[in-house]
Write a structure and sequence with these properties.
The complex is a heterodimer. By secondary structure, chain A is an alpha/beta fold. Chain A folds into two domains: 154 residues, Rossmann fold, CATH 3.40.50; 64 residues. Helix content of chain A is 53%, strand content 10%. By secondary structure, chain B is mainly alpha-helical. Chain B has one domain. Helices cover 60% and strands 0% of the residues of chain B. In chain B, α1 crosses α3. The longest helix of chain B has 14 residues. Chain B is globular. The chains are: A alpha/beta, B mainly alpha. At the A-B interface, α10 of A face α4, α6 and α7 of B.
Amino acid sequence: MPVEIVEAPPNVLLNSVVKNLTALAARAWMKRWMITFTAPTGIGKTTAVDYAERTLPFDHRVIHCKQITTRYTMLRTLGLGPGEKWTNHGRNWMRASDLYDRAVERIRERPYLLIIDEADRLSMDCFEILRDFWDDARLPMLLVGNEVLTQKLNRQHERLFRRIRVRFEQRLLGEADQRKVLEFMGYEVADEEFALLWKLVGGSPGFAEALLENANEIAASKGAKRGIEALEGAVRYFPTCKKVV
Amino acid sequence: MHEIVRRAINARPELTVELLRRGMFEPEEKAELLQSVPMRGSGLSGLPLGPVQFATLLAEGDTQLAARVVTRKILRANELTWLDRLLRFRSPNEKRDELARIVERALEGREGNARRNR
């Protein structure tokens, strides 16, 4: 069945990252595949996941991973139905194995696509659970993360790695795309500022935003408008960028 | 010398000044710090840092000092959010992961550190 993509919300720029991620999500769902989407930090993966969350026209769930995500919290999220709230606290807690059975049952009753943002932060046992979900319920998945995700899967989770059908690596944005994204984010960047940003962070709008915000604050503290001096001042705060300059 | 004071002395001066300005240190620590790093007048020289500047200095600096700053509740919500974002730009290591966990817990309103069983 062809998947129709709903129109973009006005606050998202439909660039290659967003398009590729939504297309892969649709593919993972249609083919019931496990797919990884990797890209460097700051390129706009989370924005693309948020866009997909709001627009994908089929059942899907998104887990935004954190460093504090554990196997139990993941199972708890997947064990809940849509709109259901967790009420089993204290003495009524559920064992992980019961939660797992419940989640598998729910997936079998009503399958969905599982999108995991920042999957590179998942711990070893969480990856094992994902493999179990795949084996027991054929849960289609889109794992989104940075380069660390590929390394982690390669080195530590060979059994999961073998089950992944597509491994997509998103390239950094080109100069024109980067400029478009920054304009879309509301930054008026002069040519010399853009040249410096490009040299420092390449096609990573997230990193560029951090530098520009720092530069804005430096300029504001001097009662001036942001210029190349303020941007150069901001670079001092990022030791890795400083080396490039 | 208190460990936190030693770390504050080694940090970037604008960060140390900002921490002093925000009342991060206990009276003993403050006295020790001012004794070691003579600052002009009351020790509050320099302009206050903006939220992104402050978060950037923490993210790019000493992880253990940053962790103390978070657990001592010096940061505002928007600064915590920025710190959480900026930490992801750095390549992960054990200390930085620990800091990220502390920041996430602070964002959820939980207290204390977040040491994981090893």
